[in-house]
Please model this.
Amino acid sequence: DAKTTQPPSMDCAEGRAANLPCNHSTISGNEYVYWYRQIHSQGPQYIIHGLKNNETNEMASLIITEDRKSSTLILPHATLRDTAVYYCIVRVATRAGNNRKLIWGLGTSLAVNP
Amino acid sequence: KAGVTQTPRYLIKTRGQQVTLSCSPISGHRSVSWYQQTPGQGLQFLFEYFSETQRNKGNFPGRFSGRQFSNSRSEMNVSTLELGDSALYLCASSLNGQETQYFGPGTRLLVL
Model:
């Protein structure tokens, strides 16, 4: 599975949009982009995933560039409860037993400030 | 639907002891994966179980083992604990292994 690159930390004002970038320049055609977040000392929480089209759910939007080499997770109106470490990973979602190859980096530590 | 549950949530052990951690997946999920997370490290894959069989294993010593029961619940065991085993141990379940994984709250293990 491809490796991802994320900035180590970001700040965002409460109520504003938080845009978290992720670079995955070596992504393969059958790899999905997944986003999770981890609030201090808890298990990672699934946010959203996508292949090549932009996706939106109740938590966030995922924008994937046309060449699929990078993506942006958008939290439209960040709240203090969105303060967490955000992980971007890529994985082949059609092959069982692939979790061992996932590369979880250190993610982006997002601080939402009042 | 109830989420992934892990017990215990916190555990303190001493070097040389062994420990067993438990994970109950989301109802209907048959794949359970275990991860270790230490400060400054990303999640490190331990192993994955599916239909009571270990399907994949990460690069951890044989002191780390696991099993899965017929109801998909899983346990992992660490024998002869070392100080470096202090970590957050996470369990994640998915339907069959290739779909989205959902994580439990983790078990925080402290080895003294």
Remarks:
- Residues 33 and 48 of chain B are 4 Å apart (CA to CA).
